[in-house]
Automatic annotation (TrEMBL):
SUPFAM superfamilies membership: Homeodomain-like, Regulatory protein AraC
Pfam families: AraC_binding (PF02311), HTH_18 (PF12833)
Keyword Cytoplasm attributed: no
InterPro entries named among the record's database cross-references: AraC-bd, Homeodomain-like_sf, HTH-like, HTH_AraC, HTH_AraC-typ_CS, RmlC-like_jellyroll, Tscrpt_reg_AraC-type_HTH
The keyword Nucleotide-binding belongs to this UniProt entry's keyword annotation: no
Alphabetical UniProt keywords: DNA-binding, Transcription, Transcription regulation
The species this protein was found in: Clostridium scatologenes
Single annotated GO MF: sequence-specific DNA binding
Name of the protein in its database record: Transcriptional regulator, AraC family
Stretches assigned to the HTH araC/xylS-type domain: 188-286
SMART domains assigned: HTH_ARAC
UniProt lineage: Bacteria, Bacillati, Bacillota, Clostridia, Eubacteriales
Length: 290
């Protein structure tokens, strides 16, 4: 059983049907959810708003009608750029596509997909065939007319065909896949440490020693996995924690800075404005009137 801080596991609503679809809405800027990874393949269908997809070392701006693909074992999160972002989440457990009869379809495509050896590109845009397929999957899932399970399964097969024909990014060897998983396991403890100790001083040397690698190698791997430099990741986490305190507490700006790991209030204010394009004082004033 995996027990990693950024590993995400959620049971399927129906244990006999390995597809889960739900809609999410966010009414503020910033991360829509915490950075994490999981073993199933996942699709985000953006319905309204704009955001930034952070997936491994890539940053991609997304907008309405875009489809985001998260491969298994990819560290990811989405940031909302404005005050409203909505999207559907489609979770697919690929083993449910297996049949009892082993054939070329299963050997050539479904098995490598379920073993996470075929990686898709993260963004689908202006592709009406895939967009129509996604809409059919969502419609069948929520309408739940008789035979909807068959319909959903057939459209997922169609979606996989379209992705294989136009959106394969890389085919991993078993060695590459194992290396990817080992790095995720190693860095989950690092990210958990940062989350639990962001108030304290954290150095790259300290984190690299925890991972038992050199500072240079640590920085390279950290950015590859999270899409951010170590310093940027820590500062962003601290600013996000400060936003929570600005919303929810009566602490003054100096107290908030200290409670978020900043010993210099002026530096905190400059950094806050860099990330949010507004000072913490102005942010609090605006939040009071919301």
């Amino acid at each position: 059983m995996k027990d990693y801080s950024n590993y995400f596991y959620k049971k399927m609503p129906d244990e006999n049907f390995f597809v889960d679809i739900f809609k999410k809405e966010h009414n503020s800027t910033g991360p829509a959810f915490n950075i994490h990874w999981h073993e199933h393949i996942q699709f985000f269908y953006i319905t309204e708003g704009e955001g930034i997809l952070n997936c491994n070392s890539k940053k991609i701006k997304v907008k309405a009608k875009d489809i985001v693909i998260i491969n298994s074992n990819e560290m990811h999160y989405i940031e909302s750029l404005y005050d409203y972002l909505s999207y559907y989440v489609i979770r697919v457990g690929l083993p449910f596509l297996f049949s009892n009869q082993i054939d070329s379809c299963q050997t050539k495509f479904i098995a490598p997909l379920s073993q996470n050896l075929i990686l898709f590109k993260p963004l689908v845009r202006n592709d009406n065939d895939i967009l129509n397929c996604i809409n059919k999957i969502i419609g069948e899932y929520f309408n739940k007319e008789i035979g909807f399970e068959l319909a959903v399964k057939s459209y997922i097969y169609e979606l996989i065909v379209l992705l294989i024909r136009g959106y394969i990014e890389k085919i991993l060897t078993k060695e590459e896949f194992n290396s990817q998983v080992n790095n995720l396991r190693r860095f989950s403890d690092i990210l958990k440490f940062i989350e639990n100790n962001f108030i304290q001083k954290i150095t790259i040397s300290q984190l690299a020693a925890m991972a038992n690698i050199s500072n240079y190698h640590f920085c390279r791997l950290f950015k590859q996995i999270t899409g951010k430099s170590t310093i940027d990741y820590i500062n962003k986490l601290r600013i996000d924690k400060a936003i929570d305190l600005l919303y929810e507490s009566s602490l003054n700006i100096t107290e908030i800075a200290l409670n978020c790991g900043f010993n210099d209030t002026n530096y905190f204010s400059r950094l806050f404005k860099k990330y949010k394009n507004i000072s913490p004082v102005e942010f609090r004033k605006n939040s009071i009137h919301i």
